[in-house]
């Protein structure tokens, strides 16, 4: 009895709480919480009480949080190493029928969607497949306070999705969570875009129904892969940890290079709907960056920086270049994304040079056309202004409506 109970207490405040409670044969979390007070001396007694406000204290209750393989990290794209072993990721069983409902819960730290283990992750250089357990999101608190956990070249994105899997070598998530190589998490950045991301509505439309901590609802099955970028070929890989207590250093991280776009309304819904402890809104639920301590980061693709000599261009170039692909991405049918430049190690360098050159030419053209446009616009404004003054002098006696019309047009300029 004891060991089983201790195990449950240890996990009881993870983001993964819900999952474990379902998986456990015994019912009723409330009963356990009462027992909790009797077991004041047990490790993990205070598990439920961690918060993003006391990150510096996590390690005092969860020693792993002080380890040297912690997450999240900044990904310095100039320092990653290309690896041929990192083949495209393969997701199967992700397209769930609507009859199969999934539990969606506000666990006080995030919104968490429970996933069936028939959803699997393979390829990607993994020696054996991983099975899905849950997905959840991290976000910020408004325009100027983005909330992704990882950063790329120091850039923090609006939010981040984590799809958590555990190795099929283990019977259950809880068994795998503390074992080396036990977990694999797919991470993708959320960015503000122009259009509503329909797949994300499967989750977002339910948030108002689970405002309070602990509330749960059922969501009809949908194609969960549509929450991810469509480019499964380009990603970063490193060894890290859970980003919440108990910070187990058992996560094989995959961070997509392509981002996912949500409308500003959708990002705001995420930032403003859920409440955690003390009815405070759940905001900025991301952990601060952790030291690499000499770990290496691999990439499945050649990063542009490798080709440019130092100082050969701002690192944003690569990012900008990737953005248009991310544009109306999610409306396009899933994966099989055409092979990308740079994936083939032999032709890679040349391909990148071409990209580099075309970006350069693009910049010059942009400046040329920009100047041309500005000059034309100025000339036109000047013409309108002159004409207006002349007209108003000549037509002072005509009805005012004419003038109003003209001024509305001018506003539209
Ligand atoms: C993570 O996956 C890679 C394959 O890319 C594998 O070689 C490595 O051993 C895994 N890491 C751990 C800690 O299991
Ligand atoms: C992660 O750890 C495993 C096992 O220690 C190792 O084989 C692998 O190379 C590491 N992966 C990276 C990206 O450093
Ligand atoms: C994608 O990779 C390029 C380097 O090739 C980098 O400049 C860009 O910031 C990366 N974006 C993300 C989201 O990883
Ligand atoms: Zn997470």
UniProtKB/TrEMBL annotation:
<keyword id="KW-0812">Transmembrane</keyword>
<dbReference type="InterPro" id="IPR036398">
    <property type="entry name" value="CA_dom_sf"/>
</dbReference>
<feature type="signal peptide">
    <location>
        <begin position="1"/>
        <end position="30"/>
    </location>
</feature>
<keyword id="KW-1133">Transmembrane helix</keyword>
<dbReference type="GO" id="GO:0005886">
    <property type="term" value="C:plasma membrane"/>
</dbReference>
<dbReference type="InterPro" id="IPR018338">
    <property type="entry name" value="Carbonic_anhydrase_a-class_CS"/>
</dbReference>
<feature type="compositionally biased region" description="Basic and acidic residues">
    <location>
        <begin position="338"/>
        <end position="350"/>
    </location>
</feature>
<keyword id="KW-0479">Metal-binding</keyword>
<dbReference type="InterPro" id="IPR001148">
    <property type="entry name" value="CA_dom"/>
</dbReference>
<dbReference type="InterPro" id="IPR023561">
    <property type="entry name" value="Carbonic_anhydrase_a-class"/>
</dbReference>
<feature type="region of interest" description="Disordered">
    <location>
        <begin position="304"/>
        <end position="350"/>
    </location>
</feature>
<feature type="transmembrane region" description="Helical">
    <location>
        <begin position="364"/>
        <end position="384"/>
    </location>
</feature>
<dbReference type="Pfam" id="PF00194">
    <property type="entry name" value="Carb_anhydrase"/>
</dbReference>
<dbReference type="GO" id="GO:0004089">
    <property type="term" value="F:carbonate dehydratase activity"/>
</dbReference>
<keyword id="KW-0325">Glycoprotein</keyword>
<keyword id="KW-0862">Zinc</keyword>
<comment type="similarity">
    <text>Belongs to the alpha-carbonic anhydrase family.</text>
</comment>
<protein>
    <recommendedName>
        <fullName>Carbonic anhydrase</fullName>
        <ecNumber>4.2.1.1</ecNumber>
    </recommendedName>
</protein>
<keyword id="KW-0456">Lyase</keyword>
<comment type="function">
    <text>Reversible hydration of carbon dioxide.</text>
</comment>
<dbReference type="GO" id="GO:0008270">
    <property type="term" value="F:zinc ion binding"/>
</dbReference>
<keyword id="KW-0732">Signal</keyword>
<keyword id="KW-0472">Membrane</keyword>
<feature type="domain" description="Alpha-carbonic anhydrase">
    <location>
        <begin position="48"/>
        <end position="301"/>
    </location>
</feature>
């Amino acid at each position: 009895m004891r060991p089983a109970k201790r195990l449950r207490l240890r996990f009881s405040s993870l983001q993964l709480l819900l999952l474990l409670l379902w998986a456990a044969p015994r019912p009723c979390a409330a009963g356990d919480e009462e027992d909790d007070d009797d077991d004041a001396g047990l490790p993990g007694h205070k598990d439920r009480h961690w918060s993003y406000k006391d990150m510096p204290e996590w390690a005092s209750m969860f020693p792993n949080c002080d380890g040297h393989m912690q997450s999240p990290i900044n990904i310095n794209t100039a320092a990653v190493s290309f690896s041929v072993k990192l083949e495209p990721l393969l997701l199967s069983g992700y397209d769930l029928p609507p009859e199969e409902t999934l539990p969606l819960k506000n666990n006080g730290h995030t919104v968490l969607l429970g996933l069936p283990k028939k959803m699997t992750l393979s390829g990607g250089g993994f020696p054996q497949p991983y099975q899905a357990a849950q997905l959840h999101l991290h976000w910020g608190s408004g325009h100027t306070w983005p909330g992704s956990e990882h950063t790329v070249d120091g850039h923090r994105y609006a939010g981040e999705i984590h799809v958590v899997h555990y190795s099929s070598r283990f019977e259950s998530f809880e068994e795998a969570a503390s074992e080396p190589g036990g977990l694999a998490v797919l991470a993708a950045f959320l960015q503000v875009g122009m259009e509503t991301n329909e797949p994300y509505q499967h989750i977002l439309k339910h948030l108002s129904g689970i405002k309070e901590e602990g509330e749960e609802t059922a969501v009809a099955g949908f194609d969960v892969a549509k929450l991810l970028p469509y480019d499964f070929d380009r990603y970063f890989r490193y060894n890290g940890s859970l980003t919440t207590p108990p910070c187990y250093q058992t996560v094989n991280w995959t961070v997509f290079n392509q981002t996912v776009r949500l409308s500003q309304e959708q990002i705001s819904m995420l930032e403003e709907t859920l409440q955690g402890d003390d009815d405070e809104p759940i905001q900025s639920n991301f952990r601060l960056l952790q030291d690499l301590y000499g770990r290496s980061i691999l990439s499945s693709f050649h990063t542009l920086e490798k080709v440019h000599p130092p100082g050969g261009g701002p690192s944003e170039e690569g990012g900008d270049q990737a953005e248009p692909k991310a544009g109306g991405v999610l409306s396009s049918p899933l994966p099989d994304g055409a092979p990308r430049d740079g994936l083939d190690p032999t032709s890679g360098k040349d391909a990148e040079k071409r990209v580099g050159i075309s970006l350069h030419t693009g910049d010059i053209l942009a400046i040329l056309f920009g100047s041309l446009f500005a000059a034309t616009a100025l000339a036109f404004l000047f013409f309108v202004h002159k004409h207006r003054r002349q007209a108003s002098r000549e037509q002072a006696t005509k009805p005012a409506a004419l003038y109003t019309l003209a001024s509305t047009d001018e506003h539209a300029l």
